């Protein structure tokens, strides 16, 4: 097998059918192209829990997905992230940032600077100014000294996408590696060359692809898949009702039935039969994935 795809959940809450649909798509894309399929537990956040991670793995297995090798666990890779950040630091490509979120939002910015982009406040502090800010007691975040303002990626489903690349955070003030850094390092270290995930992450992708390039790492292929929305048109969440396998099981809906519904939403079944994963794989055609979000009324799962 050549290359790998992956699913990389954050274990801060049980997976809902929207997450499961994204996982199924990532699995289908990987297997369809003869890649291995890896699981990564993105547990750098304080809200992560190993019990939730175990339930996520059990739910993914219950809908029929299989993974190669042991999961990569981000909390066990802190020293690797520090090593990469140190390398960028040595190359003069980082700076310390003492700003609070509030200061960043309030800072004056250049007339054409993109909304939400870091305004550059700490980029050019001299040694004296940095020492003064260190004394204020706030541990600095480490940002990338980016030499571009935007970057273009190719996405298998969304086409050509150009997005903001600012001096984004590599390591937070609390010492934890930032999402954008960890994702890029992990994908490259584990041989992931195909990234399939929900399209709410498309806007982070130019930053990640640029960082991969800066680090001399291969840029993976991308496919950002449409989100699942509730009937109000907002992102599906647990408050929308029975949307996790556990809550669905408690009202008599099996994991096979959920897989059948997901297959129906992807045009891979009519929702009434319960096709096994191999059948879904045989039917899978990336060019036929519905372009818009799947609007789900959880009652329809019953
Ligand atoms: N951990 C992220 C999430 O659960 C996904 C990261 C990724 O796929 O790159 O939203």
Automatic annotation (TrEMBL):
Enzyme category, top tier: ligase
Keyword Oxidoreductase set for record: no
Keyword vocabulary terms for this entry: Aminoacyl-tRNA synthetase, ATP-binding, Ligase, Metal-binding, Nucleotide-binding, Protein biosynthesis, Zinc
Entry binding sites for ATP: 238
Main function: Catalyzes the tRNA-independent activation of glutamate in presence of ATP and the subsequent transfer of glutamate onto a tRNA(Asp). Glutamate is transferred on the 2-amino-5-(4,5-dihydroxy-2-cyclopenten-1-yl) moiety of the queuosine in the wobble position of the QUC anticodon.
Protein name per UniProt: Glutamyl-Q tRNA(Asp) synthetase
UniProt-annotated binding residues for L-glutamate: 6-10, 42, 179, 197
Comment on bound cofactor: Binds 1 zinc ion per subunit.
GO molecular function terms attached to this record: ligase activity
Lineage, top ranks: Bacteria, Bacillati, Actinomycetota, Actinomycetes, Mycobacteriales
Position of sequence motif 'HIGH' region: 9-19
């Amino acid at each position: 097998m050549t290359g790998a795809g992956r699913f990389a959940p954050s274990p801060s809450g049980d997976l809902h059918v929207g997450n499961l649909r994204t996982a199924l798509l990532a699995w289908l894309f990987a297997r369809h192209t003869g890649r291995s399929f890896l699981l990564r537990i993105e547990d750098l956040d304080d809200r992560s829990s190993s019990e939730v991670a175990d339930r996520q793995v059990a739910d993914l297995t219950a809908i029929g997905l299989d993974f190669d090798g042991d999961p990569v666990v981000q909390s066990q890779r802190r020293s690797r992230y520090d090593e990469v950040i140190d390398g960028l630091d040595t190359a003069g490509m980082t700076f310390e940032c003492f700003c609070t979120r509030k200061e960043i939002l309030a800072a004056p910015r250049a007339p054409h600077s993109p909304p939400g982009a870091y305004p550059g406040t700490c980029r050019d502090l001299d040694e004296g100014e940095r020492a003064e800010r260190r004394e204020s007691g706030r541990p600095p975040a480490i940002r990338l000294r980016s030499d571009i303002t935007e970057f273009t990626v190719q996405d298998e489903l969304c086409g050509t996408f150009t997005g903001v690349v600012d001096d984004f955070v590599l390591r937070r003030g609390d010492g934890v590696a930032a999402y954008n850094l960890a994702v890029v390092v992990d994908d490259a270290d584990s041989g992931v060359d195909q990234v399939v995930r929900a399209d709410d992450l498309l806007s982070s992708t130019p930053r990640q692809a640029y960082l991969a390039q800066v680090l001399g790492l291969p840029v993976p292929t991308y496919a950002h898949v449409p989100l699942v929305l509730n009937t109000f048109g907002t992102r599906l969440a647990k408050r929308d009702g029975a949307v996790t396998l556990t809550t669905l099981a408690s009202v008599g809906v099996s994991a096979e039935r959920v897989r059948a519904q997901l297959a129906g939403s992807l045009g891979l079944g009519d929702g009434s039969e319960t096709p096994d994963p191999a059948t879904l794989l045989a039917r899978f055609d990336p060019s036929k994935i519905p372009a818009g979000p799947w609007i789900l009324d959880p009652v329809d799962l019953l």
